[in-house]
Amino acid sequence: MRLCLNGITKRFGDLVANDRIDLVAEGGEIHALLGENGAGKTTLMNVLDGLYRPDEGAISLDDKPVHFADPGDAIRAGIGMVHQNFMLIPAFTVAENVMLGFERTSRFGFLDRRRARAEIRELSRQFGLEVDPDALVGDLSVGQQQRVEIVKALAREAHVLILDEPTAVLTPQETDELFTVMRSLRESGRTILFITHKLKEVLAIADRITVIRLGRVVGTTRPSETGEQELAAMMVGRGVELQVTKGKAKPGEVVLEARGLTVIDETGRLAVDGVSFDVREGEILAVAGVQGNGQTELAEAITGLALEVGGSVRIGGRDLTGASPRTVLRSGVANIPEDRLKDGLVGDFTIAENLILDVYDESPYSRGGALDWNTIHRTAEKRVDEFDIRASSIHIPAKTLSGGNQQKVIVARELSRSIRLIVASQPTRGLDVGSIEYVHGRLVSARDAGAAVLLISAELDEVLALADRIVVMYRGRLVGPFDAGALTREQIGLLMAGVEPTAALKRDEK
Amino acid sequence: MTAEASELDTGRPSRPPFLHRLAAFFLTGNTFVITVLAFFSALVIGAIIIVLATPSATLAWQGFFRSPGGALGASWQAIANAYSSLFVGSIGSPRAMVHAIASGRGPDLVNAFQPLSETLVATTPLMLAGLGIALAFRAGLFDIGGQGQLILGAAGAALAGFSFPNLPAVIHLPLAIVAGAAFGAAWGFIPGILKARTGAHEVITSMMLNYVGLNLLTWLLTTGLYQAPPRVESISKTIAHGAHLPRLFGASLRVNLGFVLSILLVIGVAWLLKRSSLGFRFRMLGLNREAARVAGVNIELHYVLAMTLAGMLVGLGGAFMALGVDYRIAPLYGGTIGFDGITVAILGRGSPLGVALSSLLFGAFTAGGRTMQVNTSIPLQLVQVLQAVLVLFVAAPGVIRTIYRIRVARGGRRVFGGWAG
Hints:
The complex is a heterodimer. By secondary structure, chain A is an alpha/beta fold. Chain A has 3 domains: 3-236, Rossmann fold (3-Layer(aba) Sandwich); 241-332 and 418-510, Rossmann fold (3-Layer(aba) Sandwich); 342-417, no CATH class. In chain A, 34% of the residues lie in helices and 26% in strands. In chain A, the strands form 5 sheets. Chain A has a 6-stranded mixed sheet, sandwiched between helices. In chain A, helix 14 runs parallel beside helix 15 (433-448) and helix 17 (489-496) packs antiparallel against helix 18. The longest helix of chain A has 16 residues, at 172-187. The two termini of chain A are 43 Å apart. By secondary structure, chain B is mainly α. Chain B has a single domain (23-404), classed as ABC transporter involved in vitamin B12 uptake, BtuC. Chain B has 17 helices and no strands. Chain B has helices at 18-28, 31-53, 55-62, 68-90, 94-103, 106-138, 146-163, 169-198, 202-220, 257-275, 277-287, 289-294, 299-326, 337-347, 352-375, 381-395, 397-404. The radius of gyration of chain B is 23 Å and the shape is globular. The interface between A and B is medium-sized, with 37 and 27 residues.
């Protein structure tokens, strides 16, 4: 099916989210929509999904104009959406989730589960989408849940499939499997719109690439005619340094010393299982791993946020096992939490207030329990300049900033104290290329200034770019450490996927 | 008037000029405009109720087709009567005020300023209850226990007030106030510590403590400790003169020092929220508990502190009623003021200045409603309907925006941190 967007414009007040977007995706084509966060990808997708109506422009399918009043219209027209956050009900089986909203009933109004099951098996066989129709969705891995979403779309006879950042949650191996499925869907003549900001993936799978920036189409190209550098430049609007320039690490004293660390999470699960490692001053130790393997809890254990911690954490020689977050922060630990808006910022607070979120009661910001707003505002103005935070004023709420600028507020706050250890959890998740570059640069210069950096990241590129040493976390345990140069990309990927170290390291030597 | 100006505005650098901001507020439909329009809408709905509740007006409507002018005239008459007696009853007759000041005669002055005095008397406990509950709101806590806290505050103040008949006022009055504050604080501390230690939701625990407080007072009033000796009915001993809050303008006007102290407490809480590090922690907690935890705030401790302070303020409301107006307490003391405080806090959007203004409005409603009931056939309950409709509109600003076609305000502040946890 040929999907054709003609001059799609969508405004929100003064903001033009999509500005005269033209895009043609042919049947049997994987068409990548590449753009930074905030470029207007999601808005465009919601227009296609029938959630938003465009202010101007037209959509046509096989040259017939279509109008979507709601997502139901889009589904009936043959458009299937696989959202970034899955729209599945964990307590339902795969078959029930696939039926949801389009339930077929047999006589007496009973749900016709058998037909749904048969349909799922047929689709699985046809496209290599292996899923058990009777499994509970809550028990499935993230990659499997994504397959359920795809099956759901196909069961509703989607001819145009829109995949929104589908690889964000996958291991490298799962990504390869997804690509296989995408290729077989292409063979069947379906149109695939692949939304992403990852350059390597676009080059690996797309037939054509449309790059958008600030709501406008920058250009359309083919993988054979372009490269990473050029795509990145199109996306950001200038030349981008993809490689972080950093000198050799000069490791000094051990700053963070974890021994036999265990964490029981809120659900009573053993999230971190007897982990030991050191981070020295002047080095970056990266914890690689697919999200949900205990990294969050590991960071919480070090920063004093975990509830049940076993083993020991020593920072600068002091035993801080089970210490309060305040004590940990005061011992010179900078914490860049993985969820910016939930843990790192108070969205309704101003930038100035967020810049003192954990130092408000220290000199010079307060004296005798009273805040000194003049000093706070003066310092905030300085930080905004120093850390390149783009905002109209320090008095606007942090939630109105872009993700990159929000992260810069956190980085500015955490790196402006006297620090010995930085715990950075997914520090560039969801950021645009420019902000990623900036945050990476800051982490490296903090390292060069003598701080110990514990980087927790699910992004392989980030780990490879920043790490001096690497450990891989899988199901609460650590493998490593390895020196940064000692592992290939593929080997780290295998370790992240839980392949035994001996096998993972050997397989690649062949 | 706005969220920012409400908390002791500072001369901040790099803000847009005042007029710009003013224009922006009116163009984007800020909270103050919404409140004014909500007030206007409530009056319109009140007018309809007045017409329905006035026999002469309803009769005239039955003859609408014979004499449409008569129906409209009678309705207008009824509405004007009711609202003007509401005004005269709460603020007073401007003419009488001017006259009284010109003549300078004591009885004339008392009569002219009686309504205003009564408004301020009714405002005092509402302001403190609203202030306490607003403080809890700002820390992300929903204090439903105003009724119990107010009763306990009154009980504490009364106990100290009648137990020492011969103490000099300089010692006795502060002692009675502190006792009221302490009792109220204790009734706030309990839900606070229960939440901190066991995770029990403060909405449930504070609400249950209302019943406990209510019945505790009923029981206390039957014991020798509280009950006035020769009596059989449940009423407390009389508070000694030394513990009375002095009246501000002579014995005939009931407005007393309690109102002045309430205003000072409003300023104090405004300072606490905007200028103190404790207030910074409260606000952090109220807007994003997780971020507060990550930033090293001891969440449990601050739950207890916020609830205790809230209980203290509400309790002072009860104490000032007992020490300033009634001089004795009876079962069900304070009536619904503890709950009205929630409404005041919502209408004031959790800001101290907002609370002061909305409690003045509700105080005026209460005082004026009594006059209206005497002068017209409209029952006192109309003012409660007006209050309720007003708060409904404020709580659902979308309704007001739709009626008056106002653009959505940007960067409006949430009043509550939400119910979760």
